[in-house]
Specification:
With 413 residues, the protein is of the alpha/beta class. It has 13 helices and 16 strands. The chain is 30% helix and 19% strand. Strands 4-5-6-7-10-11-12-13 form an eight-stranded parallel barrel. A three-stranded antiparallel sheet has the order 1-2-3, with no helix packed on it. Helix 1 links the parallel strand 4 and strand 5. It is found in: Cell membrane. It is an enzyme of class 2 (transferase). This is 1,3-beta-glucanosyltransferase. GO terms for molecular function: 1,3-beta-glucanosyltransferase activity.
């Protein structure tokens, strides 16, 4: 991917992202840096400069970061990413400021919303902010003592309330200051109830529903194909006309067999015409090696004093040494490039033509998907949460009069 000077803000048009007049397809990676909660802050600049070179080499246009620290400056780091043509999709939550899936109502409070508002104020300044997630895997399935799966679904109405409040805040700030309104989404776990969760969180008026949806998916185990994997069923399910008319992509993907480099044939599938007829790409998990051994590269510092966590990482990485294809020097140490990095680079390069020709709407593909050109938008009726109807969407906990005063008076209308 050639470096570009500046990024047009990403907008949402029906089931696709747009970069100007062209369709935008996510070619991304999950980006976490050891000992850094927010790797896109300016205090991470020296490492980020080196990592951007690898992002460009891979052919990426997006990084997914789990946390943003609004108390730090981001201008120089985001400018470096923008100059490289890299967008950022980010979570708004932290360990402290998040919705607790086991006690969602008690964690829905003004203090949390104020923190999330500050994340919006930080990230809306940059054209290369793709969007924000109001939660990541908050709703999941647990096994109860009888061995049955139970859904932590009481958090869904709270997540909907959070989306409503965040969108109200962005509309208010835009009307008074011109601050950009960012696309808002949710990053879901890999679970069978996702289809229903999507329909619920993307229902209602534009002022409360999600703008896009992402889900992690590690179901592809090589060797596989669209027809034999879960991907084929997902194209059919999410391509139906009654599905909310918003973009969908994989927030995390890339299953790894123990002791084997990932061939990333799932990447080829994700950017094939049948998948692009409904989905908008995805983010590989993950850029840097960690204890779960999913890294594309590993940074070995020559300056850092090894901690117990570092030693654990080193032990976990030992079996992957056979997959190291190259070691490169860089400031402060060296980068070990794994076979996974090379495989992903080759797969993304091979898929470039299909991505460039990605259709604006679904077309008939090898699975017999029919056109969705006439598909409706998200349902405007306020869909009720189906599993636990006693849990209603809570009223806003925000003192909106105070917020309106702080941004320059009452909102229009």
């Amino acid at each position: 991917m050639a470096a570009s000077q500046g990024c047009a803000p990403i907008t949402v048009h029906g089931r696709q992202f747009k970069q100007g007049d062209a369709r935008f397809v996510v070619r991304g990676v999950v980006y976490q840096v050891a000992d850094k909660d927010d790797p896109t802050a300016d205090d991470c600049l020296s490492g980020l400069q080196e990592d951007i070179k690898l992002f460009i080499e891979l052919g990426l246009n997006t990084i997914y970061v789990y946390t943003i620290d609004p108390n730090k400056a981001h201008g120089r780091a985001m400018k470096l990413l923008e100059d490289a043509g890299i967008y950022v999709v980010a979570g708004i939550t932290t360990t402290k400021y998040s919705i607790n899936r086991l006690s969602p109502l008690s964690s829905y409070k003004s203090e949390h919303l104020q923190y999330w508002f500050s994340v919006i104020d930080t990230m809306a300044l940059f054209n290369n902010t793709l969007g924000l997630f109001n939660g990541n895997s908050v709703i999941n399935s647990n096994q109860n003592k009888n061995g049955k799966s139970t859904l932590t679904g009481a958090s869904a109405p709270v997540l909907k309330a959070v989306a409503r409040d965040l969108k109200r805040y962005m509309a208010l700030k835009h009307s008074k200051t011109g601050l950009r309104v960012l696309p808002l989404g949710y990053a879901a776990s890999m679970m069978p109830e996702n289809f229903t969760i999507l329909r619920y969180l993307a229902s209602g008026s534009e002022a409360e529903r999600l703008d896009f949806w992402a889900c992690c998916n590690y179901s592809w185990i090589s060797p596989s194909s669209l027809k034999t994997s879960e991907y084929g069923a997902m194209i059919e399910q999410y391509g139906r006309g009654d599905v909310p008319n918003i973009p969908i992509f994989f927030s995390e993907y890339g299953c790894r067999r123990q002791g084997q480099a990932r061939p990333f044939d799932d990447t080829t599938a994700i950017y094939s015409p049948p998948m692009l007829s409904r989905f908008s790409g995805g983010c590989v998990y993950e850029f840097f090696q960690s204890v779960n051994e999913y890294g594309l590269v590993e940074f070995c510092s020559s300056e850092h004093v090894a901690t117990e966590a570092d030693q654990a990482l080193r032990r976990a990485a030992e079996e992957r040494r056979k997959d190291v294809v190259e070691t490169r020097s860089r400031a402060g140490g060296e980068i070990m490039v794994y076979r996974d990095f090379v495989n992903l680079r080759e797969r993304l390069a091979a898929a470039a033509q299909d991505v460039a020709a990605a259709p604006a709407v679904a077309e008939v593909g090898e699975l017999g998907i029919t056109s969705i050109a006439g598909a409706s938008g998200p349902p405007t009726a306020h869909t009720a949460w189906p599993w636990e109807p006693e849990h209603a969407e809570p009223k806003s906990c925000v003192d909106w009069a105070a917020v309106e005063e702080s941004v320059g008076g009452l909102a229009d209308g």
